[in-house]
């Protein structure tokens, strides 16, 4: 006889909710050059690049002040 506890149900529920977490978009979504998935990824990458550039610029300015 197997005993099921509340955490077993939680685990099963979580597995069902996240079973396709790596399949966020179908391949068809990427076929269109201006699909919402592509536009989202482009904007996300641009935002990360802009953040990186501004961080590097700030660090360089602070280092320059420190060196002088």
Give an account of the 3D structure.
The chain has a domain at 27-68. It has 3 helices and no strands. The protein has helices spanning 6-17, 27-31, 36-67. The longest helix has 32 residues, at 36-67. It is elongated and about 70 Å long. It comes from Cricetulus griseus (Chinese hamster). This is Spectrin beta chain, brain 1 isoform 1.
Which characteristics define this entry?
68 residues, mainly alpha, 72% helix, elongated, Spectrin beta chain, brain 1 isoform 1
Question: How are the secondary structure elements laid out?
Answer:
Elements: H1 6-17, H2 27-31, H3 36-67
Helix fraction, binned, reads over 70%
Say how many strands there are. 0
Order of helices and strands: HHH
Unreliable stretches (pLDDT < 50, length at least 5) are none
How many separate helices? 3
From the alpha carbons, calculate the radius of gyration and give it in angstroms.
Answer: 23 Å
What's the story with the biggest beta sheet? none
Task: Tell me the β content.
Answer: under 5%
Mean pLDDT: 76
SSE-based structural type: mainly alpha
Question: End-to-end span in angstroms?
Answer: 76 Å
Briefly summarize what is shown.
This protein is mostly helical and 68 residues long.
């Amino acid at each position: 006889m197997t005993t099921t506890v509340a955490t077993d149900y939680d685990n099963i529920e979580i597995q069902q909710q996240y079973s396709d977490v790596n399949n966020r978009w179908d391949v068809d979504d990427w076929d269109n050059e201006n699909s919402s998935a592509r536009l989202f990824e482009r904007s996300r990458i641009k935002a990360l690049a802009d953040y990186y550039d501004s961080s590097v610029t700030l660090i360089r300015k602070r280092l320059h002040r420190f060196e002088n």
